Prior knowledge:
This protein is an alpha/beta fold. The chain is built from 13 helices and 22 strands.
Amino acid sequence: RKADVECRLLVLGSGPGGYTAAFRAADLGLDTVLVERYDNLGGVCLNVGCIPSKALLHAADVIDQAQHASVYGVDFGKPTITLDRLRGYKDKVVGQLTKGLAGMAKQRKVRVVAGTGSFVSPNEIEVAGADGNTQLIRFEQCIIAAGSQALKLPGFPWDDPRIMDSTGALELAEVPQRLLVVGGGIIGLEMATVYRALGAEVTVVELADQLMPGADRDLVKPLADRLKKQGVSVHLKTKVVEAKAGEQAIEVTFDGENMPDANAFDRVLVAVGRSPNGGRIGADKAGIDVTGRGFIEVDRQMRTNVPHIFAIGDLVGQPMLAHKATHEGKLAAEVAAGEGDPDKSREWVARVIPSVAYTDPEIAWVGVTENEARAKGLKVGVGRFPWAASGRAIGLDRTEGFTKLVFDEATHRILGAGIVGVHAGELIAEAALAIEMGAEVADIAHTIHPHPTLSESVAMAAEVYDGTITDLY
Ligand code: FAD
């Protein structure tokens, strides 16, 4: 069969990984086709992930701050929430970004093909459009960026709209009176934060013995304390065994050490992780190896076992984060464009990838966590600066946070950092830079930080470690 479209590079999927790869490749002169099954470019992150969740979290923050302002003698009264307008705001934010991407694709002459792509050979993908028509695209090189989708717990009545994944929760169809969140990870807790601020009674169940497993326990505590104060009911070491769609409510059976008293909920959000789409693109027809869980393994240049096919983003492994996907996308495009030119051979060199939970307070970490350091038997020391001693945090009336830096005891180089508190996500990048540059404690402690800022806490944590600050406790 003759190909309908021919190109040098085909990018499958237009999330942060895919659009970054396609735009970079086009900028480097490659004739590029971008295949996307949904109407809008941007993937999970822009359409149903990072961006809409942060727009809603901003609204949640405004509600909370307005209510808290009576502490300063400023009273706004009880908020009235018009859900249509809130939804409209979120959609406007998303629309602005996805339209921007469409314009950027056009400007670069990246040809966007709408439809679901599936490999038919190592150099061809067939794209099935929504209208039932198919197109055969022949490529010399390919970058797979097909992302991931929410894990659906089996046995749940998924055809009932009251059972939601994160995409359903972001649709904001209503504010349920009683919301159950299954999974106390980043996505579950961000959504719990939004719905609680909008007035839902929120219950969270988590299988592990702490919220946000993966982050150090001390970082999670200020968030857990605040959720408790706000009336969010959190149940650790507990799982859902069954959920049934009753007429009045979703009836849930739990098992575990801290089961909730309630078992009837108006809506249930399942946020128990994401599954990579590697097994859903006909990879076998191209000879690409896919793991049992659906991940595609790649080398340090993002190549799969088929050398002219690259893979990036959520489907190549953890952490499933947008900034990892964009970094990988840029790298894969540059390697693809520089094929055959040893001067242009690049590979993955980033040491660390920061993680941020945009909860209230935010939790951010990068590099080696204290837990990991201890588990690996690394000899580390920790500098910890409590925000109760920060003028800026006191002025913000948010002193529950702290900044901690993890140093190698032998070299005094920074290995990791964890920050909890308002704007922690904005503060963690400095630590990422310090780790990438191999900074030692003195580099951080002696860098003059502006006063009064929360960013000072990074330098002060270094000063706590090197012994310059001694009178904190
Ligand atoms: P995706 O964004 O998943 O994009 C893949 C694209 O490929 C999709 O558009 C899909 O339609 C398309 N596709 C798949 N298969 C095919 C096919 N066969 N044919 C055609 N097209 C196909 N990360 C952060 O870093 N920060 C955050 O704050 C954050 N918040 C999040 C909040 C939520 C609720 C969720 C769900 C995720 C969040 N993430 C966040 C994770 C982030 O969204 C992902 O890591 C990121 O989108 C991955 O990018 P990607 O390019 O690998 O794939």
